[in-house]
User: Fold these one by one.
Assistant:
Number 1:
Amino acid sequence: MNKTDKKIEDILQLPESECIYALNELIEEYNFDCPEAIKELKEILKTYNYGNIGLAQINPILGNIQYNAQKIVKRIKYAENLGLDMVVFPELTLTGYPIDDIIDRHPVVVEENIKWIKEIAKITGKTRALVGFIEKVKSNTGRRYYNAAAVLGEGKIESIVRKTLLPNYSEFYDARYFEPSPIVGAQPPETLCNFQKPVDYPKLNIINGKKYGITICEDCWNNNEFFIPNLYHSDPVKTLADEFPDVIINCSASPTRTKKEQLKHNMLSYISRMHKTPFVYVNQVGAIDNNSFDGSSRVYNARGELLARAKSFEEQFLIVNPIKGLGKIYPLANGLEKTLQEPKIFTLDYEPDLERTYKTIIQGIRDYFAKTGFKRAVLGLSGGLDSSVSAVLVADALSPQNVFGVSMPSKITSNESKNDAQTLAANLGIHFAVAPIKAMYETVNNSLQELFTTIETKWDVRYKHSFTPDNIQARSRAMLLWGISNEFGQCLPIATSDKSELYMGYATVNGDMSGGFAPIADVTKTKLFALARWLNKNRETKNVIPESIILKRPGAELAIDPKTGKPLIAEDALMPYEFMDEVIWRIENKHESYKEMFETEFLYEREHNISLEQKTEWLDKFYRRMSTALYKWSILPPSVIVDARSINKNDYRQPITSSKINYKGQTTDEIEKIITEWM
Amino acid sequence: MNKTDKKIEDILQLPESECIYALNELIEEYNFDCPEAIKELKEILKTYNYGNIGLAQINPILGNIQYNAQKIVKRIKYAENLGLDMVVFPELTLTGYPIDDIIDRHPVVVEENIKWIKEIAKITGKTRALVGFIEKVKSNTGRRYYNAAAVLGEGKIESIVRKTLLPNYSEFYDARYFEPSPIVGAQPPETLCNFQKPVDYPKLNIINGKKYGITICEDCWNNNEFFIPNLYHSDPVKTLADEFPDVIINCSASPTRTKKEQLKHNMLSYISRMHKTPFVYVNQVGAIDNNSFDGSSRVYNARGELLARAKSFEEQFLIVNPIKGLGKIYPLANGLEKTLQEPKIFTLDYEPDLERTYKTIIQGIRDYFAKTGFKRAVLGLSGGLDSSVSAVLVADALSPQNVFGVSMPSKITSNESKNDAQTLAANLGIHFAVAPIKAMYETVNNSLQELFTTIETKWDVRYKHSFTPDNIQARSRAMLLWGISNEFGQCLPIATSDKSELYMGYATVNGDMSGGFAPIADVTKTKLFALARWLNKNRETKNVIPESIILKRPGAELAIDPKTGKPLIAEDALMPYEFMDEVIWRIENKHESYKEMFETEFLYEREHNISLEQKTEWLDKFYRRMSTALYKWSILPPSVIVDARSINKNDYRQPITSSKINYKGQTTDEIEKIITEWM
């Protein structure tokens, strides 16, 4: 009796439901190649004579159809071997989501995915496979593509469902190339690439005697009782529910963001309860550039109760039976369930979101590197919070032996900082090198001073106090990191700017904000402190980040504060991080104006007595700096979106030349007066 | 009799129509403050007792409502003084277009623009003013904003028109926040910010007894005879034409691109002829980041003939009477009219597009600097084509005394290159400095070599031949340029990468592709050669670019070619530019696939005998390099779009992790075989 057989035998002692999931996990461990376990599992599943569904949450590579197809075929085969009624894949599984403008510039990708869907259909048997793909249509009107999903079975395409509601905000750009489907639910296979006018056809798919209503992603996000106001004019789920399906299915690709799990859970629970119909939701997992998809596919029963949920941030094939109540709930990222009903207010209690934040970023780094063909990372270790947290995240994502931390002290760098950097590297087990930048700084500075002497004979606009010396330091460091990246295989430099500093433009172009990837560009400073403490407490190796790094007040150690004679502290140059981060939070989550902020109390104000002049000064500085930071946002390296809103250029678009917006606004009287003066 | 009176007297001797335009030009010269001329002009215009319209093409600053409002008020006053029936402004005049995500994140901007539209209405009299603005709506369904235009007159808002067709491709993102108007034509003023259900109301606006049908931008781009297929399901112009208006009006903000003038002219001419109705088209002018709007507002008569056209790339107030046939046709950029009926094929005859290209870029640079508060530019002068053409463009946009050219020779730089750079600067009249990078190169290289020794003890993946030395040179130069920018007021460094090289990723991160603005990022190399010759021939000062720069084969002078012992020539490392630029053109204009390119003859093939192996090698290299250039495109500095398609990240969106796309495609048989192997 070999090891596998022994494991199977042990598993078979468990109660039936536990047994199903243990066998399934074992089979996934063996990459679906474990006939003995499959045989046993099939036997058990037979007792459910209908309604067994596989939720195949996979991590695709965008546009790499063959890679994605292999994952799909493997799971279809597994589902068939188990005798499931259906296997459901995420939205646009064949190409990955979001496909973006590739669809328009390289229509060959669409043609290829149609060949593949037809060929995959041929290998299907009794088990139906619901596979997302891009459909091209010959039509005299409208956009030329549908975001579609095909029901495959018995060797052919049985029917096609097309997405009706097209999200077109934040990270979503669906309406750029997709045409909204004029009909909800199934259409016959003859309409493939030829869907001009909807045909009268049963909306629901009947599979093994049960009726399924199929929707795609946004199609389930417009319930007009749950959402007020509604973004769209129709509710595809309601249209299908009116046909009395046994189960409603949704193929999704929905990236994780702060508070989104709470919204999603409440909404899906509401919908299934309202329609008294089980709801199966299958989500993409893995990161595609800035979007980190969390998987966590799930099933709600007809009472709106969570029946099953797949793992977060991992591929999984989860077997459920929404009709007969079979399911298993794998844990969410810690902390999320606690906050399902939490109000939307600014708080420094980041704890409930930290594990999700960590996993979102780790997956973002890992997939960006893997999918672009990189393996190694190099980053500067300053002994400060940003680079320290970045180092931990990168080490966890790529493994420590693939990370080099480089301490690049200047004359301003304290011994404490150097030691902290070295300690961190040692704690973390990453490689470490020291490269002082004194010689570079001096050479660059000499060249520049000579140039400046020439230039000021022509231009009478030399600053009395410039940031040139600060920037030379930051850029010298980036020069070394990029040099390493150029010299060693599959190695990218890491940009360590955080979100608070990016809002303030407090980052050097071609310096600390430059790199192949920016892991913490969507984490504010106050949250970063919390994350550092969380990492110290929750990683297997405790306390890798020296306490002195966390206790130190952040500053770039690029310049000496003339007032103190010590390195400049960022909060002294800007404003308290607690205040700054609340401004960011209010803009991003409440769309508040300057005036609204001025008129309502900040958390910081409750704990510190600040004058209105002080508040005005900070707010003015914030808006002024934010306006001029737009250029920096536009050249920000790829970075993973973590928060409910971000400055990622794929998520938020603001022309740089709009830097003269009057965010403070004017009263009607003021406007009237201004116009009168013009007359 | 003062100078103005003398000018007016001279003008009054001209034939009536000439007289109108000469007076109007004089008044614009005086910034609308020339009562004597206004009085005379008003007198002449009285003979047209209805139908006089002012086309007010203005250059707004995005989001700077007060700045824009001042321009609007001034022109409303002028139109009123002249007794015109109407003055028409471009789309979203109050805020500027495109407003992008500002609309969502900072709703205060929308609130402000509504206060302003109400106040501006109060100063109107008999003359109607058509002013574009953003309307916020309280509604339980749909997006919360309309792209609207208000007809102002007699001190109030008379009616409101809302955009129905929302462009959402390339540089357009209208559908992200705007709701398409469910109704075409006018709605009553009570619907302001309260447009939930359309009211039964006359679609046309009656002004001084004549009927006007008003549309906004994309609303006129869906004629289903001119365009096959059609992008949208309705044609607002047709809906209005069915009501028999005397004139159809369109408020636009439509950026210039290669071949767009031809399309626009043919389409507008077609529409006016088809509906037998004069068509008035008013376009925004000026650049907003990457979008350069060309103005060229115009009128077609009921036979589809061009009756009037305003200047290109300049603000203008053009007086027309579409009903009575009053108009003046100002010249387009040279060359465009020649090509109105030209087929869409790849050609090296760039001549007809060069003046437009020049003006598009000049305006792009000038407005980016002016609108962000910069005045000066610094750029490296290598003696090569890219930096030379960039220098001319920047000097022309900002004036020579605001430009510093810096020659930064390394040991590879030839004396010829140094001399060429100096000659160019002298010819152009820009400031010039020399800053050898030898010392920087050596210091950086020393620091790096030391680091590399440490790193290779841990990482066994050091390249035998790396690009590190090349990149150190490019980055040292950028370090100096950014240093100057940090040290001197309102000064930005210029990135000199061209489009062909960016496609190939043949540009250094934090090196030549880094800068505050990239003027030639959308100009391919073969076009750049043509542009250099055009500049030498057509600028007031002839031959500023030394012939030796144009004759030299391009190369970065960063490395020595071991085969020749001379600096590496880019075409030897890549492929002939003529071939490369045709690949780019076919992808961007024909959406061709690898296979289609392989199977059809290139212009280059007609003139050179190349083997299929050679063609395969070049195509393979092109696709491989293009895939890995995506990261560089994502951090490309702001740059002006020139061509029909571009890599500008606001225009073309492709996730970097999609670099594994199989652009070559597979046959059905191959796919079947692959799947069989998986089974």
Note: The first strand of chain A starts at residue 53 and ends at 57.
Number 2:
Amino acid sequence: MNSATDEFNPRLWVWGTNASKPRLLHSMVRVKDFDAAIRFYVDGLGMEMLGRFDITTRRSTGVFLGFGDYDAGGVLELAHKWDHEGPYTHGTGYGHIAIGVPDMTATMAKLESMGTEITVRPKALIPGGPAVAFVKDPDGYEIELIQTKRS
Amino acid sequence: MNSATDEFNPRLWVWGTNASKPRLLHSMVRVKDFDAAIRFYVDGLGMEMLGRFDITTRRSTGVFLGFGDYDAGGVLELAHKWDHEGPYTHGTGYGHIAIGVPDMTATMAKLESMGTEITVRPKALIPGGPAVAFVKDPDGYEIELIQTKRS
């Protein structure tokens, strides 16, 4: 492969170097106000900062957030272009990321206290299904909250 | 909670009913040609169909794809509105989903044989990092492929 590099940087192989099968690694969304986004995902939803990459040549930063390690469950990348002005636009294609929460009531209370925009309050969308709510993150991305513990 | 339902449907609690901590469950994108999308993700990238939900009252179908079970790594939801006409639009905000592949050469060969649009051929974006490529799925969503096995 012509992609070989001379120098091996283990920090850039956060997903491992010897995986035997493919894996869905992360979803990436671009955010305007990095601090607001991090407050929402870390303070509001309890995600952990797994890693941060500042790429000075591209004047951009990527932050990886998850609820475990890089290889334990889904990961979200927030990308921040240092020089980007104004909000990003949302097309009609991309939907949401879904986060499973054991305690929907506590999560909603926390998000409301932070001033999060709530678009659909918790309810079972389908009879017999889990409670589902929709909120917006600071950049307007839809976040689906799905209860993962039967109340 | 006012979201309680009379009837419990275990099929609708695919992520479990007793999670003790939150989890990133899936990312959802809307697709126009369901069959083409499934060919790309299942035949092209080797994802497995974890579940399919036809919601007749909303005239929509959701399909969940992953490389393991619902709780083993990230999951992608493809949503298909039966009556939707024309392509979905892509804003400037949503970026991509990233899939880790052990064998970049084999994956690229497979995708090329299927006529997949390749936007960035495999190369190490950062010296010492893994080979990275970008392709487009049939709906034009960017898919980042990241090599997860050192060649």
Note: Residues 34-44 of chain A form the longest helix (11 residues).
